[in-house]
Design goal:
disordered C terminus; 7-stranded mixed sheet; alpha+beta; YojJ-like (1; 2 domains; extended
Length: 268
Amino acid sequence: MDWFVNLWLLKTVILPLLDIGILSYLIYNVYLLLVQTRAIQLVKGTFLVVLIYALAFFLQLHTLLWIMNSLATVLVIIVAIVFQPELRSIFTRIGQGEWFRFNSTGKPYQLDTILNAVEVLAEQRRGILIVFARNVGLKNIIDSGTRLNAELSSSLILTIFGHDTPLHDGAAVIQAGKVLAAGCFLPLSEQADIRRSFGTRHRAALGLAEETDAIVLIVSEETGAVSLAYDANLFYDLSIDEARKALKALLDFREDGEKEREEAPIEE
């Protein structure tokens, strides 16, 4: 009888709970993806179309039903074209496999080394674009610039962005304590609602944040304002301390052997 009781518990209690738990976990992560990539607009539009179709069905509005049924395939194609950047970002993030990764290791980004140089250059109003590479590969971005593979230091950052050299106008890509390349070209943002006052640097930073999981630090040449771009969002005019706190949280930064577990503190 014990095996019968265990089988009954498995089918009536354990498996349903497991089913609900997995479904809840997937729904929550899908929601986070939608919010981070601005594809929540896609969900709202889909919900509105479904609502109109349901009303037409129950009220037997035959002409409206015929039009919607005829345009169903066309609407799917239109949605795929209009929301192509958001859909691409969603599938890119799913491909990273982060949903099932519960442990992560700190990466030696040497934030103080970088931010000390950034603070000096911001006071001088020198334009800066620094890309912190994470899980998504940036080979095409790195290949667009000059490969350095140099040890990271404040003097190197100051040299790249402190003078009007060919490398100054592009982005520097940093990973694992090295400046992999400088003078790199980034894709421009496709968002229509970005501020008109933002220049090419901010648009390029936001463009990369839309397509990859990279974090981009920007310093405005006009105002000296420090900003961060990640998860398809741009956070403008941060203090050095705010930028440091956000980067530590976003990069799983380790300090004295302990992992920072706080959430990124910036609100849009």
